[in-house]
Design goal:
Layout lengths: L1 H10 L4 H15 L29 H16 L4 H10 L8 H14 L7 H7 L5 H9 L7 H30 L4 H15 L8
Helix pairs in contact: 1-2, 3-5, 3-7, 3-8, 8-9
Amino acid sequence: KIVTEIADMIGSWDSPLLVHESLRRLSQLASVPEWTLCSKEPGRSQASLPKTLDKSPPAPNQVLEADFLRPLFLLGPSEPDWLRIAERNLAPEQLSHPSAQRLYALCKEELRKNFPLELLAIHSKIREEDRNFWDHLLEKRIDPEKAFSHFLESIQKILERRWMEQREEIKNKIVKAQFEEDEALALAKQFDDLKKAPPKVLT
């Protein structure tokens, strides 16, 4: 009960970064799983971190890729299999947003050290042009009980997005370009093979 009361008090603070780090340390001191305290984390405060000048709302691709990275940053240290799953399915260059690519590479680098992630320390390593994406990433709460299923769902959606892009690229080549018959048939077969093999998350 005392741990819960302290966690509730920490959860009322303004800065999500300080809340996350304090709850992590509380879980260590109280010898309770960190995920049991994650629900105490509030939504993102407007004044918690320096903001970039870009105040525009995130694009759908940015939202999806933030959904993929969020659990890795916040729960990845206590769930080492998640990084393995992420790396089996996605490379940084498969993310469309440049900030997502760089943050994914940074996350992998930090998680491989096998130390608890210090979000305040990570924030200091983030490039200025990536701060807006980082803000969006930290804005949303995580439900620990649903985090893994949402993590896999985000990977599946990113794989499907790339699969559909590849089909569209081939279709455009067939429609817009002039090919010899053999080349056109090869492209048509490539399109058909791709259509028959939708991606699945490797776990």
